[in-house]
What we know:
- By secondary structure, the chain is mostly helical.
- Helix content is about 55%, strand content about 5%.
- It has 13 helices and five strands.
- The model has no long low-confidence stretch (mean pLDDT about 95).
Amino acid sequence: MKKRLFSGIQPTGLLHIGNYFGAIKNWIKLQEEYSGLFCIVDYHAITISYEPKKMPQRILDLAGDYLACGLDPKKSIIFVQSAVAEHTELAWILSTITSLGDLKRMTQFKEKSKQNTENVNAGLFNYPVLMAADILLYKAQVVPVGDDQRQHVELTREIARCFNKKFGETFPSPKSLLTKGSRLMSLTDPTKKMSKSYGPESYIALSDSKETIYRKLSTAMTDPARKRKTDPGTPEKCNLYTLHQLVSDKKDLDYVVEGCTQAKIGCLECKKLLAENIFKELKPIQERRKKLKEKEIKKTLLEGAKRAKEIASQTMREVKKNMGLS
Ligand code: AQP
């Protein structure tokens, strides 16, 4: 039997290339080898302020993006978290064995509570417990995520270990799977990770045109030590070189490294080539996205929820039995 895999993304805005290179691109490869569950984690998304009227469309858009990127409903289960009530049921149970000290250490909570000072709610604090429930409900062994989520997967392992010790062997210990694009940085502030919530100029969206990509890159920060075109640059210190390494072939990479270190090309030439290569990667996704019909997306989500629910309810029966609950 194939090993099981779980991953998800919040419907909090347009997908960006950090989400793509950090997680989704890897999903597409992994869905061949694993039995995959790919979730739209709307219960996570409501831990920050949002507009309820926009949520249904955001969910459908994200599901459409999953399909356009290459997730195949014949191979994987694609579904919305709130359609499977067992996620929150298991989250409550797991919260009773999760240490408060561990939750207080979580970097994402610290960062998000600084970003959303007007709405630091208990759900934001308990986010990692719900994420542990998402993963353990399906007894997933692997969790392909970006670097920012690694700490949450480690906590999930700890929660699984604690549950098994108290109530008997129930959950496997999940592992995170990272890619070489597991931490892309913001275009406007390379000390912060690229994030949906830092605004559209800080990221390249999967739906951006070549012109928009070039415009965003042209003002993006590069190697901070390189002030003029005639100064030699240091590609390893440049946020945009990291992006080149994800989308450019050896010939283009050699051209950029030689041109930059020997001051033969300026940052704008490097950015132009980068814009072209990023767009080459995104164009087929954008073309597939345009052809998708809303009806088809809704059908995929309904079928996905049904299949996910079958696995989830079986796990909940086992969990409750082991805990002496009805
Ligand atoms: N900058 C990034 N580089 C690499 N991977 C990233 N991921 C997010 N940002 C980067 C990965 O994308 C997946 C989905 O993330 P999410 O939407 O569930 O939550 P997030 O990590 O909080 O992503 P954002 O874009 O920063 O969203 P907001 O602004 O809404 O919080 C995860 O696997 C994540 O690691």
